[in-house]
UniProtKB/TrEMBL annotation:
<dbReference type="Pfam" id="PF00710">
    <property type="entry name" value="Asparaginase"/>
</dbReference>
<dbReference type="InterPro" id="IPR036152">
    <property type="entry name" value="Asp/glu_Ase-like_sf"/>
</dbReference>
<feature type="active site" description="O-isoaspartyl threonine intermediate">
    <location>
        <position position="7"/>
    </location>
</feature>
<comment type="similarity">
    <text>Belongs to the asparaginase 1 family.</text>
</comment>
<feature type="domain" description="Asparaginase/glutaminase C-terminal">
    <location>
        <begin position="207"/>
        <end position="321"/>
    </location>
</feature>
<dbReference type="InterPro" id="IPR027473">
    <property type="entry name" value="L-asparaginase_C"/>
</dbReference>
<feature type="active site">
    <location>
        <position position="87"/>
    </location>
</feature>
<dbReference type="InterPro" id="IPR040919">
    <property type="entry name" value="Asparaginase_C"/>
</dbReference>
<dbReference type="GO" id="GO:0006528">
    <property type="term" value="P:asparagine metabolic process"/>
</dbReference>
<dbReference type="InterPro" id="IPR004550">
    <property type="entry name" value="AsnASE_II"/>
</dbReference>
<dbReference type="InterPro" id="IPR027475">
    <property type="entry name" value="Asparaginase/glutaminase_AS2"/>
</dbReference>
<dbReference type="Pfam" id="PF17763">
    <property type="entry name" value="Asparaginase_C"/>
</dbReference>
<dbReference type="InterPro" id="IPR037152">
    <property type="entry name" value="L-asparaginase_N_sf"/>
</dbReference>
<keyword id="KW-0378">Hydrolase</keyword>
<dbReference type="InterPro" id="IPR027474">
    <property type="entry name" value="L-asparaginase_N"/>
</dbReference>
<feature type="binding site">
    <location>
        <position position="54"/>
    </location>
    <ligand>
        <name>substrate</name>
    </ligand>
</feature>
<dbReference type="GO" id="GO:0004067">
    <property type="term" value="F:asparaginase activity"/>
</dbReference>
């Protein structure tokens, strides 16, 4: 078990409040002690990798997390890995691990919407269910998973869709891939897309930022980011990847200057149509497919780190987004 902090490790002086608390204060040993039923499921070795509020997630911690997953996956007596994480950036970490941790040992993220000291805290059951899934033979070769609120989600697909509800996480395009009910772990489908090989985690991450399209946006932000030397831009576009004309002009200039531009949708669900041919002209930029802007940013950053020339080859970049 690799612990990184978050609300699941949060505490408050007022158990009746689930909004006012301090994240990442309870050590993983205390979390485990609070769920004695874990001992009937698996023998757990815990590592306190970090204690952070996930809103402050960093590239350095991502790199460390991938490194420790690789280490423990290589141990012959390890059957599965559970990662405790905050909910704010969980979907981004899930996307990173989906791309960078390809193997047969199950890797299962879990989290909580209420701190550990809260009335009806959801963390203990989520932790137990995550261990049940990580120890289940059916979790093998299904990619990185998230187990929360008795549901099993594919790491690539899942996103946070509510500010405070315990059922805050959804997979909007395809739904959960399974569920947990007491000792029963049931997979109802296999994730639709798994990487063929692990993406390397860069030593130096390229600068990739997100901009949004809305009613009459200015081009100031895009121009400033391009001038600052960003490697890529993901557009949180309207509807089916529609970009305001004033923003199209700025993004076209940025693409001409060697900045990779990818269109996603701000709607939260659905597939952004792929224009033919995919080229950065007249607002026709690379499609993120069904990846939301935050997941698309992770893939774009890894792709540009591995192949910086992709910024000038939108057809090849489009193929990567279509495959992954």
């Amino acid at each position: 078990m690799l612990a990184t902090g978050g609300t699941i490790a949060g505490s408050s002086s007022n158990p009746a409040s689930s909004a006012k608390y301090q994240a990442a204060t309870v050590p993983v040993t205390a979390l485990l002690d609070a769920v004695p039923a874990l001992g009937a499921v698996a023998r757990i070795e815990a590592e306190q990798l970090a204690q952070v509020d996930s809103k402050d997630m960093s590239f350095a911690l991502w790199s460390r997390l991938v490194e420790r997953v690789a280490f423990w996956s290589a141990q012959p007596d390890v059957s599965g890995i559970v990662i405790t994480h905050g909910t704010d950036t969980l979907e981004e970490t899930a996307m990173l691990l989906h791309l960078a941790c390809v193997g047969t040992v199950p890797v299962v993220l879990t989290a909580a919407m209420r701190p550990s000291t809260s009335l009806s805290a959801d963390g203990p059951l989520n932790l137990l269910d995550a261990v049940r899934v990580a120890a289940d033979a059916g979790a093998t070769a299904k990619g990185v998973l998230l187990v929360i609120n008795q549901e099993i989600h594919a790491g690539r697909d899942v996103m946070k869709a509510h500010t405070s509800a315990v059922n805050a996480f959804v997979s909007p395009v395809s739904g959960p891939i399974g569920f947990v009910q007491d000792n029963l772990v049931r997979f109802v489908r296999t994730p639709s897309r798994l990487p063929a090989k692990a993406w390397p985690v860069p030593g130096a991450w390229p600068q990739v930022e997100i901009v949004a399209s809305y009613a009459e946006p200015g081009r100031i932000v895009v121009d400033a980011l391009a001038q600052a030397g960003v490697s890529g831009l993901v557009v949180a576009a309207a509807g089916n990847g529609s970009v305001h004309q004033s923003l199209v002009e700025a993004l076209t200039d940025a693409a001409g200057a060697g900045v990779a531009v990818v269109r996603s949708s701000r709607t939260g669900a659905g597939h952004v149509a792929i224009p033919a041919p995919p080229r950065p002209a007249a607002g026709v930029f690379v499609s993120a497919g069904d990846l939301n802007p935050y997941k698309a940013r992770v893939l774009l950053a890894l792709a540009l780190a591995a192949e910086p020339g992709l910024a000038k080859d939108p057809a090849a970049l489009q193929a990567l987004f279509t495959e992954n």
